[in-house]
Amino acid sequence: MIELHNILQYALTFYMYAIIGYILMSWFPGARESSFGQILGKIVEPYLEPFRKFIPPLGMIDFSPIVAIFALQFAKVGLSQLFQMLLF
Q1: 55 pLDDT above the threshold of 80
Q2: 68: closest CA among 42, 47, 37, 38?
Q3: What is the pTM of this model?
Q4: For position 58, what pLDDT does the model report?
C-alpha cells in the first residue's frame, strides 16, 4: 500500500515538473516546436486546457499553469491524507 502511495506521489511530482518545463519552454523561441516540446505538449496540454477555459490569459501572461500546479499540490496532500487514513 505504501508503494502505491509513493508511486502516485512521484507521478504527481513528475507531472508538476513537466508542467514547469513546458512553461519554461515558452521563453525560448522554437522550443515548443521541437520534438521534445511537442511530446511534452501532448502530455501537459490536456490537463491545462480546462484551467485555460476558466482563467483566460491576461495580456501576455497565462496564470492557468500556476493554478494547475496548485491543484496538483492539493491532490498530493489529499492523496497523502487518504493513504494515512487507510493505513491507520
Answers
A1: yes
A2: 47
A3: 0.87
A4: 84
pLDDT in tens, 58-74: 888 889 999 999 999 99
C-alpha cell at 55: 482563467
Residue numbers of the domain that contains 66: 2-87
Number of domain units in the chain: 1
End-to-end CA gap in the chain: 12
For residue 81, which phi and psi values (nearest 5 degrees)? Answer: -65, -40
Q: What is the DSSP letter of 66?
A: H
Q: Is 88's pLDDT higher than 80?
A: no
Cα angle 44, 24, 58 (rounded to 5 degrees) comes to 80
Q: What is the DSSP string of 37-62?
A: HHHHHHHHHHHHHHHHHHS--BTTB-
DSSP-derived letter for residue 87 is H
